[in-house]
UniProtKB/TrEMBL annotation:
GO cellular component terms listed in the entry, alphabetical order: cytosol
Binding positions (substrate): 95-97, 126, 172-174, 194-196, 219
A biological-process GO annotation: fructose 1,6-bisphosphate metabolic process
Family annotation (NCBIfam families): glpX (TIGR00330)
Listed InterPro entries: FBPase_class-2/SBPase (IPR004464)
Binding site for Mn(2+) 2: 92, 95, 222
Pfam families in the record: FBPase_glpX
Gene3D superfamilies given in the database record: 3.40.190.90, Fructose-1,6-Bisphosphatase, subunit A, domain 1
Lineage: superkingdom: Bacteria
GO molecular function ontology, one term from the record: fructose 1,6-bisphosphate 1-phosphatase activity
Organism listed in the record: Mesorhizobium australicum
Keywords assigned: Carbohydrate metabolism, Hydrolase, Manganese, Metal-binding
Protein name in the entry: Fructose-1,6-bisphosphatase
Amino acid sequence: MSTTTSGLDRILTLELVRVSERAAVAAARLRGRGDEKAADQVAVDAMRSELNRLDIKGTVVIGEGERDEAPMLYIGEEVGTGEGPVVDIALDPLEGTTICAKNLPNSLAVIAIAEKGTLLNAPDVYMDKIAIGPGYPDGTINIDLSPAENIARVAKAKGVPVNEVTACILDRPRHQKLIDEVRATGAAIRLIGDGDVAAVIHTTDPEETGIDIYMGTGGAPEGVLAAAALRCTGGQMQGRLILDTPEKVARAAKMGVSDPKRIYSIYDMASGDVLFAATGVTDGNMLAGVKFTKNYIETQTIVMRSSSRTVREIIARHQDLDKF
Ligand code: VTB
Ligand code: MG
Ligand code: MG
């Protein structure tokens, strides 16, 4: 019997868990060591070797960078056994390398698989992003409105006063104006050091995470990964590439971006059936980090699929310790 109901073979959903688990365990061994590069490198190696065992004919479209700067999991790299569905891959083996190196909350190993040609091929530039979780009327947020207006609309749609809304923003000097504007509304801000893929996912479960809306600029590749995740849970997101130099405009054009000011909806960033998995590396608001015990290693992974909107959380105990 075929396991395909629409789009991607659903069996891949569970296969994907192994890939993000493996990367997370590798990175977690280097948590809190102050060495971002080393933690990133082991996560990349681990994710790549596990990914290459999957029966897919995959191409990395959101990865570790261009071929010249990233030796592995670079954009354009072919991954998988080559036997199986033709798919595009977006990944970040360690999203939040600094968080991991400092052993702070919410670093993740992240991967998405999508139908061929359905993910935005985003250049590695900044993207202005705004995102909310499911349950809001369409059009509640709009990247062209002021931060105050967006906060007010979220509060109204949620049925709470503005001072009960919490926005999550990356703690960066470039966000000072945004932070001031949001604070002037009376809303609360959670300032994070890194990790805006996690932050966008956190908007999908405000009761658990305390985050209602994500705002601000972060990596464009992370924007596509976040959009893939939101496609699976419901939620709204818009992004706009920040192409503020002729060099960036040219780089984006080479990747097919003809309108540098275009606003991308969540469907523009991830249009087809998509599967998404994230495993916690450090403890976080939604996912626990990897636990090492004498007899097993425990991981927690969220894995989801857009066509059914099934969201699974998988706690795994790995007892074949020599394999990790
Ligand atoms: C974000 C965040 C990442 O980069 O995209 C951010 O998700 C943006 O870049 O975890 P700056 O650090 O230059 O502000 C990270 O923090 C690191 O990749
Ligand atoms: Mg990375
Ligand atoms: Mg990253």
